[in-house]
Amino acid sequence: MGIEVVVEGLTKSFGKQNIWQNVSLTLPAGEVSVMLGPSGTGKTVFLKSIIGLLKPEQGRVLINGVDMVNSPEREIMETRKLFGLMFQDGALFGSMSLFDNIAFPLREHTRKKESEIRRIVMERIDIVGLLGAEGKLPGEISGGMRKRAGLARALVLDPQIILCDEPDSGLDPVRTAYLSQLLIDLNAQIDATMLIVTHNLDIAATVPDNMGMLFCRNLVTFGPREVLLTSDTPVVSQFLAGRREGPIGMSEEKDAATLAAEQQFDTAPLLTGPRTVVPQLEPSPGMPVRQGALRRRERVMSMMGQLPEAARTAILNSYAPAAGGARA
Ligand SMILES: Nc1ncnc2c1ncn2[C@@H]1O[C@H](COP(=O)(O)OP(=O)(O)OP(=O)(O)O)[C@@H](O)[C@H]1O
Ligand SMILES: [Mg+2]
Predict the structure, then answer these.
(1) In this predicted structure, which of 108-122, 218-232, 254-268, 304-318 has the lowest mean pLDDT?
(2) Does ligand 1 come within 6 angstroms of the Cβ of 19?
(3) H-type helices in 6-92, by residue range?
(4) Of all atoms in ligand 1, which is nearest to the CA of residue 45?
(5) What's this model's pTM, rounded to 2 decimal places?
(6) Domain layout of the chain by residue ranges
């Protein structure tokens, strides 16, 4: 079963440049979470901070009692073995076959026999739908296949926490839809805690149990997907609608003059239109029930009192029998 990741008061700067401050959130065990945010808001830096590759100046990241910021490096290294990472660019070795790429972490970090390695690698290759391509070099396959190979490699060490940095970048809409389903199926199969960084609004709307957004050096919000999807905070609704009008500009944040000029054209109605919450993806037929989704239902029901009205309604609708009821 996946492991809870607790982030408390995290602040990260590079020199004088503060990236984000006082970020606190909990990735619930075995649930899927998505982090949104305009380019440059520090999403990749956040992932790297969670695994202890970057050191925030303040705050803690607690995993099984180990603080990935301040614990001794030996403990951090040990805890890092719980993670599977899928990088923004796939990060495969160009001169190695897919098989060898995917086998790499096993050969590097375990003493397993080649026969055992072969069994594990082929099983992961099967999960991501790359059977038959294992002998190919990364340069001989499509970008979408490289993404899935990156995901297979993230899975070989039986991770309990999976971090994916823009798994969809460079994929067409159909392949992105397949990838969304793959992420949900994967979660059903291994019950790992997952955090996905993405700009893709379809993934954001259909995959996660929880969503957060980084903007202007702060975590705007983090919580059940329905909270963000129904939010009328301007930065959230602008991002989810992919509009130019609103607080987000080309250099992340618009200056006061630009914002004031926009407001003269009265964009307010644009920012507050009703928004529907599309149903979350279910595991494919034949897959196990998502244990994370079951736990999430309990969890969300117990926090209803603290949620905004629109989010409460959306949650109750999604759990109503008429909505398919397959979630239970
Ligand atoms: N090692 C580093 N040293 C100095 N600055 C860095 C370092 N890594 C990242 N930054 C800065 O931190 C900021 C956030 O970068 P990050 O890559 O996390 O953004 P992002 O949200 O992942 O963007 P994108 O959506 O484009 O991938 C950027 O201004 C970047 O220049
Ligand atoms: Mg990034």
Answers:
(1) 254-268
(2) yes
(3) 43-50, 73-80
(4) 18
(5) 0.88
(6) 5-265
